[in-house]
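Fold this sequence, please.
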Amino acid sequence: MVENTTEFDADMVAALDAMLQIYGVKPFGVIEAETLNTALVEKPDMVVMDVRTPEELAEKGVVDTGDVELVAIPLQEIIAQMSEWPAADAEIIIYCGSGHRSTMALTIMGILGYDTLSSLKGGFGAWVDAGYPVMEYAVP
């Protein structure tokens, strides 16, 4: 098992925060796998968004969201598929494989007016490592 030990450069984080403030983007949150697992039961109106590739979805599956809506839009198609985005007032949890692509998706969505966004810390890998349920995904 590989642990997610990503360390962030404090200067880069500060620079990114300053850039986002220039564009009026509110800071977004990070959610741990344990917290997401609880939220999937307690917050049925939230939306979970997977920004991995269709190949990753087919090969590895997706977070088992139960009754919570799951939206899958690859990061490389995030702008082209804006019509598939959840409502701007929805609480949205975004994840990818490790957390990098979801952060990019959060930034894009934040610039375009979404403000109740969080990224799954460590992404799908952290979810799997924590032993939480995964389900198969039939790529359309």
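The CA atoms of residues 75 and 101 lie 7 Å apart. Residues 10-22 form the longest helix (13 residues).
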